[in-house]
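Exercise 7. Given the encoded structure of a 522-residue chain, write a plausible sequence.
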């Protein structure tokens, strides 16, 4: 268990390297594999691997859902740097500790509960959108409500707009907290106007339906109203949980803690009730729950829907955003973990194969010659059967979602005019077999937030800059302006960056992209 973190990191690194390699060489689709196999006299076996996995249960039909009791909302605080997110979290933590937990010194377990009039709210303890999206990257949506902090003495800024896009993309409900109202000479109405004009976020005060509460995090004023507003919104959203169901939690972060005697995983329970002694599968590890620790450090016998907790008992470290799901037995847990590990290994093997074939493909020499002379390719040859088997598996999954693909776009331009022009062309565009959806429009260089926003749906970041020269040369200038670290991150998450300052060139690139997708290139 000690080396789990390192091993995990190694396999991620491997995947990353493989992806980088794969991009350098030509992609190769299923048909190509078949042709090459025939050429080389290889047999491709078509198998359907048996799926042994557990997933969070889907939401039941409304009649059943309505019988469940209300659950507390799970809230993330987002907003521009220095607008007061940390101050607000600190203020809430120290003034509104949930009933029954009063007097306790809060522990850092990634989230905490706040109470008001017998009801509670769970706040994730990491402000900003990075933690939020890193969870979404793994398909996890744990946040019901985003509190968008906007400082009235500063107004709507780039990260305010990014946060709005992140919240919207995740389907979370937004509540605006207009912070720093204690600063004299500021005008909340101006900020409300900015939210409306720059993000089409219309707050209740000006006739919209987004709740907005003026607060001072520093002086701790009006925090009750903010919590009341969150509770009211939770009621409107009809958030319910089924305490009788198998537990389904989500890991916020996990680490090896020798002092605690093993892996400690900070989680928020989404569904069901988790008890000490239950068996859980968590990412590619599992365990029997040894202890459940509350955010005030107390030992809990069980945790219900929306409750944050630290979990002890997992065999290995897992990543933030991974599901922690209760299963009926240790043998079931082991079976699921073995299946998931095999799936990852096979995916890596498939990558290797694609790279090897891509290399052979790109090279001038004949494929046969390369395959017989390059030992690494011989190795890859043996993996073809495997690769094909996994293709079949992926195809089976794909069949369910046949039809038009949606291209999720993040648009970046250097000027407001450029951004507007891009938005105008790109929103809801119909391409052959695909449709576009703009998830964010921003002004300025491509940044980390753009990549994570696009990453959730393996989307596209469009880097449009009127300053760069036109044609292929201009595209190159734009591409070079993006740091290697950002490019690596894009690769890792399957995000495509398209650089151009000519709209029709971008359209061509989008069409090529769709073509590649449809022929199974990636
Ligand atoms: P974060 O980057 O969004 O987490 O912002 P911080 O919580 O670190 O706050 C940035 C600065 O704003 C700090 O100096 C805070 O003391 C100050 N600040 C936060 N809330 C308020 C407030 O309500 N009023 C005033 N006047 N200052 C505040």
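Solution.
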């Amino acid at each position: 268990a000690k080396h789990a973190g390192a091993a995990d990191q190694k396999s991620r690194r491997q995947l990353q390297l493989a992806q980088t390699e794969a991009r350098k060489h030509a992609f190769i689709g299923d048909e190509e594999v078949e042709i090459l196999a025939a050429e080389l006299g290889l047999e491709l076996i078509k198998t359907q691997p048996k799926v042994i996995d557990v997933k969070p249960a889907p939401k039941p039909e409304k009649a059943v859902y309505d019988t469940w009791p209300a659950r507390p909302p799970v809230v993330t605080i987002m907003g521009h740097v220095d607008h007061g997110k940390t101050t607000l979290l600190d203020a809430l933590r120290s003034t509104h500790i949930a009933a029954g937990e009063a007097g306790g010194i809060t522990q850092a377990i990634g989230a905490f509960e706040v109470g008001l009039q017998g009801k509670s709210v769970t706040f994730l303890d990491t402000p900003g959108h990075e933690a939020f999206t890193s969870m979404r990257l793994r398909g996890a949506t744990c946040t019901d409500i985003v509190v968008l902090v906007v400082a009235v003495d500063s107004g709507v800024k780039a990260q305010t707009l990014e946060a709005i896009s992140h919240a919207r993309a995740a389907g979370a409900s937004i509540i605006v907290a207009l912070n720093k109202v204690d600063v004299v000479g500021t005008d909340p109405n101006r900020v409300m106007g900015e939210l409306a004009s720059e993000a089409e976020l219309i707050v209740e005060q000006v006739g919209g339906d987004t709740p907005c509460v003026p607060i001072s995090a520093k002086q701790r004023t009006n925090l009750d109203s903010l919590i009341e507003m969150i509770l009211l919104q939770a009621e409107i959203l009809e958030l319910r949980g089924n305490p009788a169901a198998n537990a389904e939690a989500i890991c916020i972060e996990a680490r090896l803690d020798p002092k605690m005697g093993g892996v400690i995983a900070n989680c928020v329970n989404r569904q069901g009730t988790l008890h000490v002694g239950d068996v859980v599968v968590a990412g590619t590890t599992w365990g029997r729950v040894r202890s459940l620790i509350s955010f005030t450090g107390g030992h809990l016998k069980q945790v219900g829907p929306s409750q944050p907790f630290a979990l002890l008992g997992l065999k290995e470290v897992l990543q933030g955003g991974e599901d922690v799901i209760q299963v009926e037995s240790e043998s079931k847990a082991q079976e699921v973990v073995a299946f998931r590990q095999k799936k990852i290994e096979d995916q890596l093997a498939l990558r290797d194969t694609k790279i090897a074939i891509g290399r052979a493909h790109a090279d001038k020499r004949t494929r046969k010659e390369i395959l017989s002379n390059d030992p690494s390719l011989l190795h890859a040859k043996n993996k073809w059967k495997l690769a094909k088997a996994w293709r079949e598996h992926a195809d089976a999954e794909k069949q369910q979602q046949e039809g038009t693909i949606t291209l999720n776009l993040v648009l970046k331009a250097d000027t407001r005019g450029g951004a507007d022009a891009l938005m105008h062309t790109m929103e809801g565009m119909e391409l052959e077999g695909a449709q576009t959806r703009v998830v964010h429009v921003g002004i300025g260089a491509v940044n980390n937030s753009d990549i994570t926003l696009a990453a959730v749906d393996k989307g596209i970041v469009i880097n449009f800059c009127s300053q760069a020269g036109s044609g292929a040369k201009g595209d190159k200038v734009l591409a070079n302006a993006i740091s290697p670290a950002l490019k690596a991150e894009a690769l890792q998450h399957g995000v495509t960056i398209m650089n151009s300052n000519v709209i029709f060139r971008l359209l061509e690139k989008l069409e090529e992209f769709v073509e590649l997708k449809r022929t199974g290139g990636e």
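Remark. The mean pLDDT is 81. Students should compare their own answers with the one above.
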